[in-house]
Design goal:
Layout (H helix, E strand, L loop, with lengths): L4 E7 L3 H11 L7 E6 L3 E7 L2 H10 L12 E6 L7 E7 L7 H13 L1
């Protein structure tokens, strides 16, 4: 079972522009692994440090590495939310008030909206 902490955000960017901004803005990892899964009205954007971290998420769900304090995260881009804006659900391993890494990810995503 995959569980995490959800944060709801909104953007006026379209899906392709949003994904490009993610790729440009994730600078805390040298070469992040990004997996994109298109559904009907949503697009799941999985982001992890590398493919191994992504694979472990499939086994463990949203987790945090003990040494680094880092973990994978998910962005669910909902283009069918409204005609004026798109909803983005950010799913993190830990609360942004309890984890420096979660706060960093949240602030990074918030800055590109």
């Amino acid at each position: 079972m995959i569980t995490g902490i959800d944060y709801i955000l909104y953007t006026d960017k379209d899906k392709d522009a949003f994904i490009e901004k993610i790729k440009e803005s994730i600078t805390f990892w040298k070469n992040p692994y990004i997996a994109i899964d298109n559904e009907d009205e949503t697009t799941d954007i999985f982001v992890s440090r590398d493919e191994e971290m992504f694979r472990l998420m499939d086994e463990k769900g949203f987790y945090v590495e003990e040494l680094s304090g880092e973990g994978p995260f998910l962005l669910i881009f909902n283009s069918g939310y409204s005609s004026k804006e798109n909803r983005v659900t950010l799913v993190l391993s830990e609360e942004i008030y309890e984890s420096k890494f979660s706060k960093l990810v949240f602030n990074t995503i918030k800055s590109i909206l």
